[in-house]
Amino acid sequence: MNYRKEFMLMLIHWYKTLYLVKGLQNPPSSVLKATREYQDESVPIAEYWRECITMLPPSTHKHLCLHCILDDFCMRDSRSAKYTDDKLRSDLGSIGVVINKSQTRCSVCKKKKHAVKNCQFSDERIKEKDSTMVVVVDDGI
Prior knowledge:
Layout: H1 4-22, H2 29-42, H3 44-52, E1 53-55, E2 63-65, H4 66-76, H5 85-94, E3 103-105, E4 112-117, E5 119-121, E6 126-129, E7 132-135
Antiparallel strand pairs: 1-5, 2-4, 3-4, 6-7
């Protein structure tokens, strides 16, 4: 049997009686947790972004270019071997990260490139020294 018409009528009924009356409800924490786990599996950069990048207030003027983000991500995650700039842009966009359309000076490599504004690496890999930024990689030795 074909239930397309009945299913559409049911969706319209729910829209009119639930959504328009009560509005959008906050999902339960179990749904948010399951969604995050699924996103981590399907979009490898999502987990990396949450754990390794800290968003800063706009007044800090620290930015990370896509090249520096991709380099760091590739060092940390084996799933990143086939990542390209376009794939990185797409996956960052899918988790809500806004990439600046105009070129901005990166706080790490000091080059003017497309960057994510007001963020920095979360751990101690980047240390400021005499007004220049130095990338420190912990290789576990």
